[in-house]
Write a structure and sequence with these properties.
The protein has 171 residues and is mainly alpha-helical. Helices cover 47% and strands 6% of the residues.
């Protein structure tokens, strides 16, 4: 018995990693979503932002710009009331960037982007009724009979309808 105990202790000394206790840690259930500065500015202002910014490609582009070491500087822009103002360049959208319109997203991209955007809306303290309105609207699209139709035009028509979400913000 003592020999077995001594052998076990010797084994533990030789292979420490094998006998390290493993904690019962929880896995994060909420993904970290860091959209572009432009998307954040739109959401903070309570404006609708294209779903593209919450697709994998949009989030990847945002990550590239965030990790950039180049200082963005200021940019002169015109506000809705016609006044000119200076804003951080990273808070504006690059006019040369190719942004996929909501109606042209694939269902795969839509399914990725909509929940990410809902989380971002909540993070930026959108009124609960507006968040709920978007959830209900996008749920109706997901559950519509055309969503699973064999005719791609019917599926595309639903995605075309998803672009109407920007009109709901001002309701």
């Amino acid at each position: 018995m003592e020999e077995q105990e001594a052998a076990r202790k010797e084994e533990q000394k030789k292979n420490k990693a094998k006998f390290v206790p493993v904690g019962n840690n929880k896995v994060l259930s909420i993904p970290v979503i860091i959209p572009s500065h432009y998307a954040v500015r739109k959401l903070k202002a309570g404006e609708y932002c294209k779903l593209y910014y919450f697709t994998n490609k949009g989030l990847k582009d945002a990550k590239k710009s965030i990790l950039s070491t180049e200082a963005p500087g200021l940019m002169l822009t015109t506000t809705a009331d016609g006044q000119q103002t200076w804003v951080n360049a990273d808070e504006t959208r690059d006019p040369k960037a190719v942004i996929t319109k909501d109606k042209n997203l694939s269902w795969e991209h839509f399914n990725k982007a909509a929940p990410c955007m809902i989380m971002a809306m909540k993070q930026h303290e959108w009124p609960e009724d507006r968040v709920t309105m978007h959830i209900q609207f996008w749920t109706v699209l997901q559950n519509h009979c055309w969503r699973h139709a064999y005719d791609p035009l019917k599926q595309h028509a639903l995605l075309h309808t998803s672009q109407r979400a920007d009109l709901m913000v001002g309701v």
